[in-house]
Amino acid sequence: MAGFAVRIVTIYYCTTLTYIITVLFLLLMPNLIALVNYIAAGRLMAFSKLNVGCLRHRSLARIFFISDILSFGIQVRHHRLHAVARCTS
Mean of the pLDDT values across residues 61-72? Predict the structure, then answer.
């Protein structure tokens, strides 16, 4: 709900800060939800004593969290370029 409220505020009062907050809500929330799922999957693997290939329950959440951070960095660079282009036009 907070993300929608910030988007509505951004429509009427578009500043750099409101744009940054909107982008952070859009990029961080799915990653945080996915992290909870990765941790739960790792705990289920530990509970069932299951190892899938080279993945162990301890490394499952770490591997996916690192991939989320890398994709987050790529998305932030894209939005930074988009914001610079938006400000100059």
Answer: 82
Burial class (CB in 10 A: 0-12, 13-18, 19+), 42: buried
Q: What's the CA angle centered on 69, arms 67 and 70, to 5 degrees?
A: 65
Domain membership of residue 71 (yes or no) is yes
Does 54 map to a domain? yes
pTM to 2 decimal places: 0.55
Task: Name which of 63, 84, 78 is nearest 27 in CA terms.
Answer: 78
Report if residue 12 sits inside a domain.
no
Number of domain units in the chain: 1
For the record, the structure tokens of 2 come out as: 């907070």
